[in-house]
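pinned: reference chain
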Amino acid sequence: FTTANVHLPTFQNWLTENNYALSVSRNVTMRDRHDRQQPFNLKIAWSSTQTVAPSPANTPIYNIGWVQFLQADLRRGYTLGGAQPAAGRRVVATPLHGPVLAENVQTAGAPPGATRLGDDGSFAVIIPAGKAVCTNLLDNDAAKTSQVKERFWVTFQPGEIRTCANCHGINTTNQTDPLATDPANHGKPTNTPQALLTLLAQWKGTHPSGAMQHAVAAVSVVKSAGPAMLSVTRIGGSTGPVSVDFATADGTAIAATDYTARTGTLNWADGDTAPKTISIPIANPATIAGPKTLSVTLSNPTYGALGATTVNALTITETPYRAWGFTHFNTNANVPGIGGVADDPDGDGQDNQSEFATGTVPSNAASVFRIANVTRAADGLSAAVSWSSVAGGKYQVQTTQNLQAANWQDVGALVTATAASSSISLPISPLESVRYFRVRLGP
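pinned: its structure tokens
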């Protein structure tokens, strides 16, 4: 179950809920050295797996390919017109049938109630609980000849998983060592049963536990905004509990300087698909710097699988104004007289805060926020006003007819810029000889 990454209690709960049990054997070709009442030189029909006694030399080898489970059904001795005997009070050995049969690995051409033996001689079969069953090993010839018939009936409890090393218990050595000269090398089989892995893979396919992955591949967080919160989701199934480990790793961001390193495990209970959160504490030093990155990687899934997005690229940024300052001044953004909000390093009369708000260049005195052009239409009924802008910025055009007047009036609608320059057409009176315009940042 560990190798198949299946949660054993969840599987057993499912068996119990459906009134099923599971029977497993590691290698049915082995027998105790004294057990010769039935064929004891056995070979898996489609593989090289066999267990053969060294003597007598002419003892035949029997091919086996299928394990057929028979269940003790209560029948009557007549069919009442149906294909099977009607229900009654007579116990009749009947090949495994009903919904439980569909839970097992299906193979085309299988005999009734039979499951293909693994190449290693193993089998794993889900069977009804509370009903006596017995087994029968069949050849893979055209007649599916019965080679070994078990002589006892066994009843399983709901949820029971019964694992036998082989069908007939080995006391000291198997049939390859009839004199018991080397018990250490001829004892019971210890192979991981391939048939069980195949069955569990099929069961997991129809009862998926899900995959765990980051909700997004990249997250950006302002360093002054508190911890980064990364969401991890469980998708594609919710059967059983699952867990996944996570760990941070330095990029340009350094643990203990820019953030606090984190490792841990995220857990989901059976049926739980709610996202889980990884919290990464972010440092907030006063020094302005460029964007820094780290990664958060998911690994070591338990019972579930890893999804497509196993790594989240986390970027730590400054506030928009501080990031703007670093872009234009680099490390000089931390130097008084250059990077402060009230500084005017290019001497154009606009401080850094104003240049940031208006999208101008703080190191270029010619780059200022101003109206670029005002043009009266040919019919004299409107004027086109254009100005430098920042995409996403909001601007309000105002007008007056007398520069001496203190009453500038809003004219036209608030403009939301979509590019580095904006313009608006405004109605004017054809009788006006002079009109003044200005543009201010909108609310």
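why pinned: Helices lie at 8-17, 99-102, 194-206, 320-329, 352-358. Residues 8 and 252 are 43 Å apart (CA to CA).
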